[in-house]
């Protein structure tokens, strides 16, 4: 369809009548059907389109930079479960705003407590399911599991059923200690790298806070089969983000701070989970 732009008056070829954008002046125009009683008109000039885009971008930027409320940090919560769940949702699904809203001068105890609860619940459910299986499974079901486990962990598959059950119960019993150890060792390794590189704040509590609040995705360990594949990289990414925001360092340096400790801790976590089997 050959027509004329109502804004710049230059010839314009468009596929059909209706709303189009002029390739010459970049204005958004409405082009009427030939022979209709409607008239061509300008909807928005190029300057108006640009101004509208800038306003939308500014609103989006402001919405992303606005601090979010962190219920777990707000004194003594009226409902601990609600405060925990709300904080978990924000830390996992709105991490940039969440970690930007954390007060770096605050103590790390609440962050540690949050991470400890996440890791403890994940491990308790994991080991609880293993104990339930070894206690309730038929001999045929047990043998089928051991056959499949033989291909993955031959050494674990050679352990008898009674010993497997005892080990799983012990792991279940000491889960709170494992969770605390995971957080302290992970934060300690990351903080050691920070000190070695001479970057960030010289406060271990701040690193512990970052690691604790970044542990939210560990709950995805509860998902069958794919849980670890989701939880581990997500946790690594949140840890890098939290270290970046709370210690005020570049994201490239955060990769170094988190990378090596995370590989060590991931290996340790998989060993713990493997022992439970």
Structure description:
The protein is mostly helical. Helices cover 65% and strands 6% of the residues. The protein has 11 helices and 5 strands; from the N terminus they run βββββααααααααααα. A 3-stranded antiparallel sheet has the order 3-4-5. A two-stranded antiparallel sheet has the order 1-2. The longest helix has 28 residues. The radius of gyration is 28 Å and the shape is elongated.
Give a nutshell description of this structure:
The protein is mainly alpha-helical and 277 residues long. Helices cover 65% and strands 6% of the residues.
Keywords:
277 residues; two-stranded antiparallel sheet; mainly alpha; three-stranded antiparallel beta sheet; 11 helices
Low-pLDDT segments, ≥5 res: none
What is the number of helices?
11
Between the first and last Cα atoms, what is the distance in angstroms? 71 Å
Overall pLDDT? 84
How many beta-strand segments?
A: 5
Looking across the biggest beta sheet, what order are the strands in? 3-4-5
* Residues in helices, as a percent range: 55-70%
Structural classification: mainly alpha
**What portion of the residues fall into strands of 2 or more residues?**
5-15%
- Order of helices and strands, N to C? EEEEEHHHHHHHHHHH
Label the overall shape. elongated
**What integer value in Å does the Rg equal?**
28 Å
Main beta-sheet strand count, sense and barrel state = 3 strands, antiparallel
